Amino acid sequence: MDTALVIGGTRFIGRHLVSELRDHDYDVTIFNRGNHDNPFEETEGVAHYEGDRSNETALEQAKREVEPDAVFDCVAYQPREVRAATEIFSDADAYVYISSGDAYGNEEIPKREGETELRPCTMEQATDDSGETYGNRKAEGDRAIRAAADRGVNAYSVRPCIVYGPHDYTERLDYWIDRVANYDRVVVPGDGDNVWHRAYVEDVASALRVVAEEGTPGESYNVGDRRVVTIDEMLKLIADALDSAEPRSADTSSGQGPRDTDLEIVHAGERELAAADLASDDFVLYRDYPHVLDTDKLADLGWDSTPLSEAMATTVEEHLDSDRDGSEYDPGREAEERVLGVLDTL
């Protein structure tokens, strides 16, 4: 395969995917509405075709213009979009759909492709656009991939867990990096052993390419870090990465003041959190029940994940150069200080 069409391609996963494909000598065309800055505007071997992926005529025109060997669908959020794309690109060497670990309906450890039941999806859920039905819609997209493969389409699905890394516009991990960078004591709900499997974005990008080149049509492939860490271990990785990061001048106005990576993690139970009108789910990336994906099936194709220290170092470096702080998820430092005060009296 030599040519690729990336539906999306300028924000997060798609951005890293384009770089991955160029590193492996693909000629790449990005297909999107042009609503975001194109980081590849001056990059040789990367073209841009403007259009709305929900417009099937625009997708058909892009197919005629590009004639891609491989199609990577980063922004299919409704099952009808997957069904339409698998029809339009039915003669491609590969159509790879980004699904989600949230497609799984059963709480199993670990969640395995072909074994763990997927979420159901009603007709109403299939056309919804709320966060509550995200996993249902992704699961139905996976079923559309299987149906397309049964018709002879080279269609594949990749299911990432929580994705982190440079240019993450969700800012979920940015919240925790900002906390560790700016405070000596960081409040963590529970006992610190919470596990919510994460996937480094560059590894997700390489997984998409590997599945297109080596996968079996109709199959789904989980992707996540090959070593799963607890929330405490994640914070220690962040602290180590901050300690190794290039020195930067203090700038409290930007939220990146002097940092002390002598991290003290303070665990708070529901009673202590309630004293400040907080609950464990007020803290992003906290999950009561472990969420772990089996990644052996993907590894059998020759894929591997980046060492965690290297992945976090790159993530932290880019965070420090950005203006992201994850404040959308901030439960409030004053509330956390009240929690700390309660714990200090025990």
TrEMBL record:
Pfam families: Epimerase (PF01370). Residues 317-339 have a biased composition (Basic and acidic residues). Residues 112-139, 317-346 are annotated as: Disordered. It comes from the Archaea. Residues 4-78, 91-224 form the NAD-dependent epimerase/dehydratase domain. It comes from Halorussus gelatinilyticus. Belongs to the NAD(P)-dependent epimerase/dehydratase family. This is NAD-dependent epimerase/dehydratase family protein. InterPro entries: Epimerase_deHydtase, NAD(P)-bd_dom_sf.
